[in-house]
Design goal:
By secondary structure, the protein is of the alpha/beta class. The protein has one domain (about 10-100): Rossmann fold. Helix content is about 30%, strand content about 20%. It has helices at about 20-25, 50-55, 65-75, 85-90; strands at about 10-15, 35, 45-50, 65, 80, 100. The chain has a 4-stranded parallel beta sheet with strand order 1-2-5-6.
Length: about 110
C-alpha cells in the first residue's frame, strides 16, 4: 500500500486558528482547507512574530501576524460552531463577519 498523498485528500479541517501555520507550508493547496473556529477569546487567536514567519515559511509579514486573520484572508471563509458563536466572533473580527458560516449539531432543528 502506498502513501495517501495530499492530492488524494478532499478536505483538511483546521481546528482552531493556530493550525493556520500549515497554510504557509502548503500554499498550493488552499482549496483543500477549512478553518473551524471554536474559541472566541484572544487565547484562540495567537499571533506570531513577523520575523519568525518570514524566516520559517518565507512569508512576508509585518511586526506580527495574527493566525486567524491570516487564515481568513487566505481562505475567505470559516466555520463557527453555532449561530451565537457567529454573532460573537463577528464582533471580534468585524471585517470578516460575512464569511463566518455557523454549523451546529442539530440543536436548532424543529422537533
Amino acid at each position: 500500500m502506498g502513501r495517501i498523498g495530499i492530492n488524494e485528500i478532499d478536505v483538511i479541517d483546521l481546528q482552531e486558528s493556530y493550525t493556520s501555520l500549515i497554510l504557509m507550508a502548503l500554499p498550493g493547496y488552499l482549496d483543500k482547507f477549512r478553518l473551524i473556529i471554536h474559541t472566541p477569546g484572544p487565547w484562540g487567536h495567537p499571533s506570531y512574530p513577523g520575523e519568525y514567519v518570514q524566516k520559517e515559511f518565507g512569508v512576508p509579514a509585518g511586526k506580527h501576524i495574527v493566525s486567524t486573520i491570516y487564515a481568513l484572508e487566505k481562505l475567505g471563509k470559516a466555520i463557527v460552531v453555532s449561530m451565537k458563536h457567529r454573532e460573537i466572533i463577528s464582533k471580534v473580527f468585524p471585517e470578516f463577519s460575512e464569511v463566518f458560516r455557523p454549523i451546529t449539531n442539530g440543536i436548532y432543528l424543529r422537533r
